[in-house]
Amino acid sequence: MNSASSPGRIYDISRPVSRILAGWPGDTPYQFEMLCRLREGAAVNLGSIAMSPHTGTHIDAPYHYDDKGKTVGELRLETYIGPAAVVGVEGRAVITREDIGAQWLQAPRLLLRTNGWPDDTRFPDRIPVLDADVPEWLHAHGVVLLGVDLPSVDQIDSKDLPVHHALGACEIAILEGVDLRAVPDGFYELIALPLRLEGADGCPVRAVLRS
């Protein structure tokens, strides 16, 4: 595995948000509608947006899975910006510590490339998940954020969300739905800041990596 090349390069790891982006079944789909238009005599073009806060590339606030957890507006921004490692773990149904490799945990933010959601116009039926002992292992190595190229860190049909809760107990932030297909394994700077949405359980982000 080679570290990133081309110093200063920026990788946009956000999935484009549009009507064809597959969202969680039952969630509010992305909608953008024009309320007024210049060509119709209005002073400005002005639109309206509706969507689930878990659309595309997004963060989960602890409140999403814990009534006592912090909401988006209460999160520390420092968690979502800083050194990160991208690691390929393609082809695994269950991702183990050995699959990740301790050498990548020099960075406090870890992004896993599973390629488990190759077509984001279709919602997956099954996705890779972490082995049960991985969250505590990440915490012991100082990891503060885990990102995945999947709609969730838990299996799609999970109701008790064991990985969400395990990561939350270790105070590891969750970033879901990143697109790492064009990003080589290596060390980067991550910038994935959520909006200051008071009371929200999640928030889409414009996530980028800088080499």
What are the key terms here?
211 residues, mainly beta, nine-stranded mixed β-sheet, two-stranded antiparallel sheet, 13 strands, disordered N terminus
Helical fraction = under 10%
What is the general shape? globular
Share of residues in strands = 25-35%
Oligomeric state of the chains present here = single chain
- How far apart are the first and last residues' alpha carbons, in Å? 15 Å
Most strands sheet: 9 strands, mixed
How many beta-strand runs? 13
Largest beta sheet: strand ordering: 1-13-11-5-7-9-10-4-12
Order of helices and strands: EEEEEEHEEHEHEEEE
Q: How many distinct helices?
A: 3
Based on CA atoms alone, the radius of gyration comes out at 18 Å
Structural class: mainly beta
Give the integer mean of the pLDDT values.
96
List low-confidence stretches.
Answer: 1-6
List the helices and strands and how they pair.
Blueprint: E1 10-12, E2 31-36, E3 46-50, E4 58-60, E5 81-88, E6 94-95, H1 97-100, E7 109-113, E8 129-130, H2 134-140, E9 145-148, H3 162-169, E10 173-176, E11 186-191, E12 202-204, E13 208-210
Parallel strand pairs: 5-7, 6-8, 7-9, 9-10
Antiparallel strand pairs: 1-13, 2-3, 4-10, 4-12, 5-11, 11-13
